[in-house]
Known about the structure:
Blueprint: H1 3-26, H2 33-40, H3 44-50, H4 54-77, H5 83-98, H6 107-115, H7 121-140, H8 149-170, H9 174-190
Amino acid sequence: MSIAFHRSIAARDRLIETARALFLHHGVPNVGINRVIAEADVARMTLYNHFPSKDDLVLAVFEREAELRRESISSVQDTLEGPFEKVLALFTVALDLARLEGFRGCAFLNLAIEAAAPDGRQHALAQAHKAWILDNVTRHLLPEIFADPQTLARQIVVLWDGGVVGAYIQQCDAPICAARDAARALMRGAVH
Length: 192
């Protein structure tokens, strides 16, 4: 591979990581392309060579964020045994996120709200990420152990989302802990 190709990949990654930090900390609508270009230290043409529009950059950023979140959840779950532990691991990941400086709640709920177009690509990306979360929870709620695993999974995901939103609003992790405890109680109540 040529040096120019490597520089191009490096510039693309730098743009994504810079925009990711800015979008997660300030919100997509509050960050303009000029700020991304300045902080990534690239030329405007470099940005537009990789991302024809801000929407394309936003999609790339949140695709990367979804990948990182899936990896984070899976890596915690891979160290655990049993459905209770694997499902409740989502709350551990949420607690870790809530304790980061600049935490603004769920990045994907924010994206869906900020996009304000339920038929748009950004909303679809947020929806796909939330579907992955639901599938992840459902996969661990084995029907031979739990009654109505699909309903239980939906309830747990609603608790998880609510805990993350509450943690941002209240600026503490207590809502996530409360949501985790409620999820544990729901799971215990659903055991055959």
